[in-house]
């Protein structure tokens, strides 16, 4: 099978995006690399990554699994809510 | 308080399997029910591997497979221990598998399946509201009386929380603690389109019949978790599951584990030429009986994944059949409570009793050692390597004199693990069973 990037895979999914409001509140100033590493490795949607060496986060493409909250609540993940009704991913297969 | 008008007898938060099952049973008994689902439609936020063991839904909708959007009926089981370049497989195909509705299991895709179950709930008389996120549970004098969404309040005699593994609402009212990394695994899955004929050919299946395939070892690079493959009608679900407490065991990320699994020599030929049509992710409760929260309080019951009802035995993974049964038992409890007009915790405690008398709690109790076993490194790292080593020896003839298989097995085990670790692993396995 042809290899797809996570971005390309997410491009296959149906999202209703709220460009204004993030449902996850992330502390981007965090310097605890061990903590950051867990989120970078675990997030299936690669919402957490290093861009040009800088820790970055985007909630767009979030699959709403809750992994980051469980791994790092009260640390890097300061707040985690479900997106508002109808917002976010809509699985058509599931 | 007695003046309050109720919007319904029961409000159910979450239109998944637990919520819709409860709604059907309640509506069939004549109670008014509102199901509130945050997704665009029921199932929009849900994902399974996955396979549904049908027995519990049979009790609510007999012979449901005749009308439900099931993908395939499982007639073939496969379990693999994988190394980077090898796979020791155990396959089991038998007429005994899925021989009758009570023991049948089916591959399902939740977006389709849950929408169908929601339709059944509507037919029974339940009202389903989609696209609404419940923000708060309204508690008065220690009793749950309603829900609030975007400033709007709704009241009912009782609330069922069926809002899934991330039940922030059960946490909000203190019935459940925040999940710990050792209690859940993250699943990532691709649904890959192939034709029905190609799937039948590659998996050696008759029309309508399917395979459930679980594996441990290489997919998670020795981390706690595994890979899974389920055949749907004209798609194949391929995914990995990784326990959160073991994230970082290697430098391989969860998305990379999925690619690694897809590219594994034992997997790639099955999906060659396929086209990914969806990518999904979800948390899976994995700690069984150890993570069951408070199940009832005045005016409220917790069901399904929200209550952590799931077990993973390595060769069988269950959650959806528990969700359906817990939804049904929650509904039965509320029907009785409605009859006597008492929704106090004392009356609702019947729900926990019913669960304890059912397979839900009995099966979870029966395998309470499994979560420990599934955090035994040997199972994921040493065992697949030993299996590969021994199998390679067993099946290789190269003209070199053979020193005797038993000696080789002992040497192979000794190479991978110390006697102490081996005893620990065997003890864990025996305890788990």
What are the defining features of this structure?
heterodimer; A: 94 residues; alpha+beta; Alpha-Beta Plaits; two-stranded antiparallel sheet; two-stranded antiparallel ribbon; 6 strands; B: FAD/NAD(P)-binding domain; 3 domains; 9-stranded mixed beta sheet; globular; FAD (chain B); FAD/NAD-bd_sf (chain B); FixC-like_C (chain B)
Write the layout of secondary structure elements.
The complex is a heterodimer of chains A (94) and B (433).
Chain A: H1 6-10, E1 14-16, E2 24-26, H2 33-42, E3 48-51, E4 54-57, H3 67-72, E5 77-80, E6 88-90
Antiparallel strand pairs in A: 1-6, 2-5, 3-4
Chain B: E1 8-13, H1 17-28, E2 33-37, E3 51-53, H2 55-60, E4 72-82, E5 87-93, E6 105-107, H3 110-124, E7 127-130, E8 136-140, E9 143-149, E10 152-161, H4 168-172, E11 184-193, H5 196-202, E12 209-217, E13 225-231, E14 235-243, H6 254-263, H7 268-271, E15 275-285, E16 296-297, E17 300-302, E18 311-312, E19 317-318, H8 320-340, H9 345-357, H10 359-366, H11 370-373, H12 377-380, H13 382-395, H14 405-416, H15 419-432
Parallel strand pairs in B: 1-2, 1-10, 2-7, 4-12, 10-17
Antiparallel strand pairs in B: 3-6, 4-5, 4-6, 8-9, 9-10, 11-14, 11-15, 12-13, 13-14, 16-17, 18-19
Helix pairs in contact in B: 1-3, 1-8, 8-9, 13-14
Question: How would you describe this structure to a colleague?
Answer:
Chain A: This is Ferredoxin-like protein FixX. Chain A: Keywords: Electron transport, Iron, Iron-sulfur, Metal-binding, Transport. Chain A: GO terms for molecular function: iron ion binding; iron-sulfur cluster binding. Chain A: It comes from Frisingicoccus caecimuris. The complex is a heterodimer of chains A (94) and B (433). Chain A has 94 residues and is an alpha+beta fold. Chain A has one domain (6-90): Alpha-Beta Plaits (2-Layer Sandwich), CATH 3.30.70. Chain A is built from 3 helices and 6 strands. Chain A has a two-stranded antiparallel sheet. In chain B, strands 3, 4, 5, 6, 11, 12, 13, 14 and 15 form a 9-stranded mixed β-sheet that branches. In chain B, strands 1, 2, 7, 8, 9, 10, 16 and 17 form an 8-stranded mixed β-sheet that branches. A two-stranded antiparallel ribbon of chain B has the order 18-19. In chain B, helix 1 links the parallel strand 1 and strand 2. In chain B, helix 1 packs parallel to helix 3 (110-124). The interface between A and B is large, with 41 and 63 residues.
